[in-house]
Amino acid sequence: MNLEAQIQTPQPRTPAWAMLRTLGGIAMISGLLVALVYQFTLPIIAENQRVLTEQAVFRVLPGAVGKRDFVITADGALSPAGEGVDGALVYGAYDQDGGLVGVAITGSALGYAGPVNVMFAYDPECACITASKVLQSNETPGFGDKLDFDPAFLKNFEALDARLNDGGDALANEIVTVKHGTKTQSWEIDGISGATISSKAMGRAANNAAQRAVPAIARDLAVLTQQN
Fold first, then answer.
1. What local confidence, expressed as pLDDT, does residue 146 receive?
2. What does R_g of the chain's alpha carbons equal in angstroms?
3. Which residues pair with 131 in a beta bridge?
4. pLDDT by residue (tens digit) across 33-50?
5. For residue 171, what are the β-bridge partners?
6. Whole-number Å distance between alpha carbons of 76 and 212
7. With the C-alpha atoms ordered 214, 127, 151, 54, is the resulting torsion angle positive or negative?
8. How many structural domains comprise the chain?
9. In a domain, 32, yes or no
């Protein structure tokens, strides 16, 4: 046998630094593309969110044709939303003459399958919640859906008591969900049979929203009612 045939010529190896350079270049290009896509889609996402929020405000506050965004600042004051102003958002809703129809506030609580995010309509005149709209929920279909569509359950939010205590810094009575058929107080929510966890989450969301927003609304109602 030919000795030369028995000797295998080793294949040239790619230097490690060249491989690292190639991988680094790919990673840099990928990162740049992700950043460009993010920058391109960010305003689209923001606009879609603005439209969805506006639709929710007008649903819970029928009769409104315009809205203005406000922020509850760290010191509990209500301020027009703007650049550099941080805090929880609330939405003033206005009729065609610029009169205040009501205020949309949001709250969240943990349900059976994750957070339940809800928008509520608050009427400063009656100091009560007058409507609700689920913004996000992963609750069990057929049960969790009732939070938004069951007529008997939605009646809970036609005049749900959200009055403040004498100090004006918290609700006089916490909003709570009670067992179906046992509601006796105006601040109680009659739960849904078979969807106890979901309906309790709705009650906590309402309480969280009102405890945070109502003191600020009562304190700075003039900020909401003043004309642009």
1. 87
2. 27
3. 121
4. 777 766 666 566 666 666
5. 164
6. 8
7. negative
8. 1
9. no
Distance of CA 205 to the CA centre of its chain: 10
Paired tokens of 219? 């304190």
| Cα separation, 10 vs 172, whole angstroms | 85
94 falls within a domain:
yes
**Residue 9: inside a domain, yes or no?**
no
Q: List, for residues 106-135, the tens digit of each pLDDT value.
A: 999 998 888 999 999 999 999 999 999 999
Residues 6+ positions from 171 with CB-CB distance below 8 Å:
162, 163, 164, 165, 187, 207, 210, 211, 214
- Give the type of residue at 165: N
Q: Rounded CA gap, 120 and 6, in Å?
A: 83
In-domain check, residue 199: yes
Distance CA 22, CA 65 (A): 57
* Structural domain harbouring 63: 45-225
Residues 58, 203: Cα–Cα separation, whole Å: 22
Cα Dmax for the chain: 106
Range of 18-22, 110-114, 136-140, 154-158 with top mean pLDDT: 154-158
Contact 109, 208 (CB under 8 A): yes
